[in-house]
Amino acid sequence: MKIDKSEVEHVARLARLEIGESEKDPFSEQLSQILKYMDQLGALNTEGVPQTATVREQTNVFQEDVPHPCLSTEQATANAPQTEEGFFLVPRILNDR
Amino acid sequence: MTLFKLSLKELQDLFTRGEVTALEIARAFLLRMSQVEFKVKAFITQTDRETLLAQAEAIDKDLASWRKTMPFMAMPLAIKDNICTDGVRTTCGSVMLEHFAPPYDSTVIATLRTHRYLLLGKTNLDEFAMGSSTEHSAFGPTRNPWNLKCIPGGSSGGSAAAVAADECVAALGSDTGGSIRQPAACCGVVGLKPTYGRVSRYGLVAFASSLDQIGPITKTVQDSAILLNALAGPDPLDSTSADQPVPDFTKAVKKKDVKKLKLGVPKEYFTEGLDSEVEQAVRSAIDEFKNLGGEVREVSLPSTEWAIATYYVIATAEASSNLARYDGVKYGFRSKEKQNLLEMYQRTRAEGFGSEVKRRIMLGTYVLSAGYYDAYYGKAQAVRTLIRREFESVFQDVDLLVTPTMPTPAFHLGEKLQDPLQMYLSDIYTISASLAGIPAISLPCGYSQLGLPIGLQIMGRPFEEDKVLRAASAYEQATDWRKKRPVIR
Fold first, then answer.
1. Could you tell me if residue B298 is inside a domain?
2. How confident is the model at residue A58, as a pLDDT?
3. Which residues of A touch B328 (CB under 8 A)?
4. Which domain holds residue B10?
5. B9, B41, B80, B416: which one is catalytic?
6. Are strands B400-404 and B453-460 parallel, antiparallel or unpaired?
7. What total number of domains does chain B contain?
8. Radius of gyration of chain B measured on its C-alpha atoms
9. Mutate which of B343, B379, B395, B434 to disrupt the A interface (most A C-beta within 10 Å)?
10. Which of A61, B23, B201, B481 is 20 to 30 A from B355 (CA-CA)?
11. DSSP B207-256
12. Residue B345 zone, left/alpha/beta (φ > 0; ψ -120 to 50; rest)
């Protein structure tokens, strides 16, 4: 699979990654090379083969819903870049009107 | 006596008998680190001298009134820097988490803390454990103690190098596609990836959740068993941890032979790309297993050739999802540029992640995106089933599989840095066990003419770490490889 510059831009947007103009060509080249290698899987017949999402053969793991001690607001926000009154602060997302 | 040269078992015995104090242990390792760390660069964060000495003194003081020890009391360990340590920064080798101090302990650390172990520091790794050489660390590469111009392997390169350089008595690493075994092979030490689910992943920073597993990196196989005893077991905080009985793994390493064990040699692990010195060393090791009473036979795992492609689809897909949490809001780095929310996310991730992490996020996002999901991610998960089935089928006939850990000895720093695909191919022998979730160990089985260690890999059935350890220990006891130590220069 060849992945061109516009696809690099599309994938970067999906991944919320800003990519500089100078990075686009190297990304296009490297990702194409790696995807070409991955394309070999297409040659395998996997019809009717179930998918393995995890090797642990379990479906649900249940626990009693019992309250237990947890982090305080101070602890939970201590590593945040910006906080205000115990909340995480982010750039404004709504206009004034 | 040179305390830093001892194995975990030897140091535990001395301490338990009261022949050495915690303070003496702490001082010995601080001295050793001051002698070699500037050359090896195994650590991202070292515990400061006063803190460590105070911890050691407190242990000695408490023991003075009532001498009751625990197995890891005063044992000086190094911990890979993607395993959360309460209040001690855990960077994952990334700018993104450079100043991140977790508000809680991972389960493995909580256990060791109950024992009052000594945390010497947090070790270097490829950023978010993505890499095979420890060169993809935002804090610079670690060096191989056997040859400072060579890579220590990765991604647990700092932990493996710290053990090889005697900067700690043992270490913890994490393995997603070989990140414990491959650096152990490069550095001439013992690295065990337990069965998926054997050890709690709670507090291990997630890379690829269906593959990640914490395990010991040690000087001897016996030490590996001792550490696994402490780490293994179900954990209510990790729903993927297995409710399986945990045997005393140290019993398994007491046997000196492999009688009644059937060992398979998969022919697909001895094809082109395998260095001749590595092949020779591994073939000799296989002969040694015959001398030790094992029944050796050739087996076939034809899907081996698809493992790398399968792995890099699944691991990058899971990584792209796991790393979506680094958005500059709840913790970690945030870009300083003035901007709206979307730009803040994008710039934060552009500035906070290094090139290999970005490459994998891009790949993972691509294989999960509309139109490609079935062709890549769905396909890879089906091939993963084929790989598992092959192991299940081979394990009907043999108890263990014996292979090289890595196709070559450690390569030079910079050698594969510009060619991501070549770097990925160095994981060829370790990846299948990760996809199948089975236990696997790497231990030294020789040295190249240039003096670099060569690793032997032994894989076993799920939850049969005891057999893996038994075979590894019998081989280790029958050979002298572990007595050779690097001269760091």
1. yes
2. 79
3. 81
4. 3-302+389-483
5. B80
6. antiparallel
7. 1
8. 21
9. B379
10. B201
11. SSTTT-EEEEEESSHHHHHHHHHHHBS-BTTBTTS-------HHHHTT--
12. alpha
Chain B CB contacts of A44 under 8 Å are: 306, 379, 383, 386
Q: What is the pLDDT of residues B37-95, one digit of tens each?
A: 999 999 999 999 999 999 999 999 999 988 889 999 999 999 999 999 999 999 999 99
Residue B246 inside a domain? The answer is yes
What whole-number distance in Å separates Cα of residue B277 and Cα of residue B268?
17
Average the pLDDT over B280-292 and give the result.
Answer: 98
Q: In what order do the strands lie in the sheet with B118-123?
A: B43-46, B118-123, B76-80, B170-175, B213-218, B190-193, B440-447, B453-460, B400-404, B262-266, B295-299
Residue B355 known to be catalytic: no
Q: Side chain identity at A54, as an amino acid letter?
A: T
Q: What is the CATH number of domain A5-42?
A: 1.10.20
Residue B325 forms part of a structural domain: no
- Chain B residue with CA closest to A57: the answer is B240
Token output for B171:
């270490």
Specify whether B155 is catalytic.
Answer: yes
Identified catalytic residue from B132, B133, B159, B179: B179
In a domain, B188, yes or no: yes
